[in-house]
Design a protein that fits this description.
174 residues; alpha/beta; five-stranded parallel beta sheet; globular
Length: 174
């Protein structure tokens, strides 16, 4: 596990998992939201965003969390490990509401500077429709990769079990 892509709906916990994995594995973590959004929720130029991601993906090791469908295929191709947090819609909706409350008036650590936490109808609708509109094509893509470690977690308890197993592997190395 040297190049890890973490994908899933908003509110699933991609950034939290990325931070935990980064710390345990000693890998640098890149949050796509933090790279893409400039102060005041101004999006980065698409060409520059692609160029930036390509530079990161050419590094020897990385963890990248985020969706960004227009660049997902490239990340999936370059990753040796893909983790898809495929949680229920309700769980993800609760996650974005909790996050909004936790970071009210603040910028999340995994978000671009000057982008205070917000919750608007467009984002709520995107999360509400993710499992119906986005997840099926992602699952199709993931099933085509035979040379990668693919993890599809449908519950946080599965992630906890995975992390416990990872701890045991790390301990056995030494």
């Amino acid at each position: 596990m040297k190049k890890i892509a973490i994908i899933g709906s908003g509110g699933a916990g991609k950034s939290t998992l990325a931070k935990v994995l980064g710390k345990r594995l000693g890998l640098k973590v890149y949050h796509l939201d933090a790279l893409f959004w400039k102060p005041g929720w101004v999006p980065m130029d698409r060409t520059a965003f692609i160029r930036l991601q390509n530079g990161i993906m050419n590094e020897e090791t990385w963890i990248i969390d985020g969706n960004f469908g227009s660049t997902m295929d490239a990340r999936l191709e370059k990753a040796d490990t893909v983790i898809f947090l495929h949680y229920s819609t309700i769980r993800c909706l609760v996650g974005i509401v909790k996050r909004r409350i936790q970071y009210q008036g603040k910028t999340r650590p995994d978000m671009g500077e000057g982008c205070q936490e917000k919750l608007d109808w467009k984002f709520i609708s995107w999360v509400a429709g993710y499992n119906r509109k986005k997840a099926p094509s992602i699952l199709d893509k993931l099933h085509k990769f035979r040379d990668k470690q693919i993890y599809i977690f449908t519950r946080p308890s599965e992630v906890k079990t995975f992390l416990r197993g990872l701890n045991e592997k790390i301990i056995q190395k030494y």
